[in-house]
Amino acid sequence: MKKFVYIVILLISSVSLVSCDDFLTTDNKSNVTDKKYFSTKSGFESLVSNAYETLRDIYASSSYTTYFNAGTDMYADGRNYINDELHEYETLNPENSVMKELYTACYKGIRAAYAVKHYAPDAAVDEILRNKRVDEVRVLAANYYYILVNTFGGVPLMKEYVANAQTGYPRSSAADVYAYIIEELENVIANGALEKSTARNGGGRASLESARALLAKTYLAAAWDLDKKEYFSKASQVADDVIAGRSLVTPFADLWKADYSGDDNEEFIWDVEYDYATAANTVSGGHPWSSFYCNHIGGQEDHGKGSTSAFIVTLHALQCFERGDIRYEVTFMKELPDIITASNYWYWDWYRNGETFIGTPLKRYYPAWYETEEDIENWRALDPENRKNTWILPMSDQTRDPQEYMPGEIDYEAFVTYSYGGAPCRKFDDSNTGSYSNKTDYRDIHIITLSEVYLIAAEAYLKAGDEGSALARLNEVRRRAQLNSATTIDVDVVLKERVCELFGQGSRWIDLRRTKKLVEYNNLYNPQIRGRAQQVIGGKLLRPIPQAAIDANELMSSEDQNPGY
Question: How many domains does the chain have?
Fold first, then answer.
């Protein structure tokens, strides 16, 4: 596929930031005859592959966590800082490079998707396949527009591939963008050209199931943003169409197995697909998710795993997990051996030994916030010889030095800035590669999951005024986590459940913005701006449209910039 993608890039060009053309259109700068090549079956399929490849520009980007989770209640600065502008808001401006990167990647994906539509009529494929591929890329483009409107508000709408350079596109309203996404997805669903589901076949292809799931997400967001209560009802109905009477039957731990065995489960509705067995580059051709949400826990020479050392879980997020919630130990690694060059112990030994460190001397233990002294002593008693000297690092306001083992207590917020500080996230580990490199995770990246659809339905039913149905959907997620059923529900309850079920996967910033909780939750729980969120966020309730995009677009001006910038 890489060879095909390279040819496609030659034909439809790459992205740069020089003119409006670079954000929104394509221009054939090669001597290859594009129409001739893309009219062949292999050429057309390579164009489709290129459209899917653009998903990696966002979901496999090292900036993924910054795109969607900076400036929220769940993640804090670690040994490395989160992007200050996006996490602390005060200095955020339209020159922010990360937002320019996201904005550009979305339009690159839209352009690649609509190139497929453009060349499809002449492609040497049968009508069934042609219609299927066109509808697949319509879902891709709709997903990119969903990201754009939920991050930047109204944006320029490009609805077709344009082969020649354009001088500008006006900014459309958020209402128009939502209307376009909804129209596209409803048409795709009505056409019925897509497979019903691709989850068990890798999940990488858009399907009717993923189109409906994205439509439910879109109706939910549009209901909040446009103040259309009837859209909450539509969101709940479409989400129930996706659920289709199914329960969450696969144990949470089996879904998130580090050996990929859960990747093709029916709950993973739509993925960015990876395959280590067939990867052309098994050294650095994967994605960095294994390194996310984890502080430095030893260098390459120290038998550790790669880590970004940023976006460390906040105490608030940890405390969203209740005692007995089986998702906690699937999400976080609670035990670490002495990971140093002189030892023979590795982080990855936990997987090699059958997901246990029994028999291995342990250096650090990160008990869940609800564990008592008795719980910790019971834990030591399971392997007393190897746990008698383990350094206990409480997940509480006052904890201990995780690095130098100094006596006394330190604040949790200082604790997470140390190496080994914070509970390491293991949810996205790749045990087949077991590498220190940040690009050797070959597990699928899950864009939409069935449990998220349950939570979409819960939120939509709640806002539509049907609390009974909202509780039923929420409690199906809690049942699988082996928790008691909730008896009351509000937006805070749904957001809390999203922390536990979707830790690391979700777009927390979008969730808080959508539910009008951005300022409140940052004020309460973002360690960097606690107590002053209203002051520093102010009117910055959307991300800034990149100044480069405005300057390059003859039909946009400074008047099109979002409030607060």
Answer: 1
Nearest alpha-carbon partner for 368 in 392, 385, 347, 388: 392
Token pair recorded at residue 239: 């989400």
Answer yes or no: is 367 within a domain: yes
Q: Under a CB-based contact definition with an 8 Å cutoff, are residues 178 and 225 in contact?
A: yes
* pLDDT(2) > 80: no
DSSP string across 158-193:
--S--SS--S--PBPPHHHHHHHHHHHHHHHHHHT-
Would you state the structure tokens that stand for residue 496, as one six-digit string? 């809390």
Q: Are 313 and 422 in contact (CB under 8 A)?
A: yes
- Dist. CA 35–CA 140, nearest whole Å: 22
Q: What are phi and psi of 478, to 5 degrees?
A: -70, -35
Is residue 384 in some structural domain? Answer: yes
Structural domain boundaries, residue 301: 294-415
β-strands 362-365, 312-313 pairing: unpaired
Mean pLDDT in residue range 421-429: 97
- Write down the pLDDT at residue 26: 44
> Which of the 8 DSSP states describes residue 475?
H
Domain membership of residue 352 (yes or no) is yes
Angstrom distance (rounded) from CA 442 to CA 391: 33
Which residues does 498 contact at the CB level (< 8 Å), separation at least 6? 455, 506, 508, 511
- Segment 77-117, tens digit of pLDDT: 999 999 999 999 999 999 999 999 999 999 999 999 999 99
pTM of the model: 0.94
Instruction: State the DSSP H helix or E strand holding residue 312, giving kind and residue range, or none if neither.
Output: strand 312-313
H or E segment to which residue 252 belongs = helix 252-255
Task: Identify the residue whose tokens are 């339209």.
Answer: 94
